[in-house]
Amino acid sequence: MTASADDSTAPAGSGADPSGARERILSAAFVLFQESGYEGTSVNRIARAAGMTPAAIYWHFPSKQDVLAAMLTQMYERSYAELKGSVRPDAPAVERLGDYVRAYVRIQLESVGERRNHSYSALASSLTDESQRELGRLSRPYIGLMREILRQGIDEGDFDIDDVSVTSYAISTMCEYVFTWFRRGGRLSIEQAADKHLELVLRMVNAKRPAS
Amino acid sequence: MTASADDSTAPAGSGADPSGARERILSAAFVLFQESGYEGTSVNRIARAAGMTPAAIYWHFPSKQDVLAAMLTQMYERSYAELKGSVRPDAPAVERLGDYVRAYVRIQLESVGERRNHSYSALASSLTDESQRELGRLSRPYIGLMREILRQGIDEGDFDIDDVSVTSYAISTMCEYVFTWFRRGGRLSIEQAADKHLELVLRMVNAKRPAS
Q1: Could you tell me which residues of chain B have a Cβ less than 8 Å from any Cβ in chain A?
Q2: Where is this region: Disordered (chains A, B) (predicted)?
Q3: Which terminal residue of chain A, N or C, has fewer Cβ atoms less than 10 Å from its own Cβ?
């Protein structure tokens, strides 16, 4: 292992992980925490799955809580980057809303493995209040982008919305928690579930024309 | 304490709790598990909050997991009874949908205390697979009643719905997880949040007339 002391405090995504050890730890933690929860996942088990010793984990993270916080931070940042990258910046709002809803449902459902028993928000409840507030800040861009699209649609005369804030939250909630009822291998593919959510969302904003 | 040995196996809501001890344990567990999570709540703490000894808890429940399972079972049964009691049995579907959505949002938001950090579904993930399946069975009547109302509205010619199953789940999810973003003391009262959800839901089913 060639990790330097700097690694132990490098923020997720900073790239200062020459050995790839930090990334391996977070990948193992991502699977295990979702399968077994925070209390049900020991540092020993994360170490075994990452192919290293428990001492090597503590070289990179002061505590199991720091592993969880870094894993959730990375997940929120990567998912938001994927979502934002899916939404065309210069298209009409109805198209951008379609991009957003399809991508968000897809992101939520593609990460549902056989054993995703513990949602991100359930896991986050094991963090300190301060860490939870930091994660809360990372979730703001999601709702901010939705609000921006809804306001654009009103300005363009294509959406008719009574309360942009409540409508943004209602749409986001419906898409974020789709994993609580969707079953892989059931009647609908992920793409079909995404399309059906978009149809409902277009009704919620009273869209004057369909998304293509 | 006058509890008999029968109490220890009495199902929640069976009424076989002459001393009220079982009810006191479940009330204390209801608050503490939501505040501090399953791992963060000891049997000692539940005992202290219920005003009894840890040994008395174990007289009623074989383990902390059994306390959690009984607490969640009671919560699901009581909430469903309240929901069902709020929906007029013989009214047009548009009215019944209004009853359902308003009651469901109210039930979710009224139980949000200052410190509801752990949702029911997050807590349920600490149960055995078998107990989780049993709880899953208790959540089916919620979606069953929603489906029944939507089909009634189609039959009455008042709703236009592409996929009753997805629409039922989407509406339920939006209402069930409203507590993740609603803040007490914010811009909206619980009644206003419920009304705004109903407006969105009536759009989702393309209702031909408003709920009164």
Answers
A1: 37-39, 117-119, 121-122, 125-126, 162-163, 165-167, 169-170, 172-174, 176-178, 180-181, 187-188, 193, 196-197, 199-200, 203-204, 206
A2: 1-20
A3: C
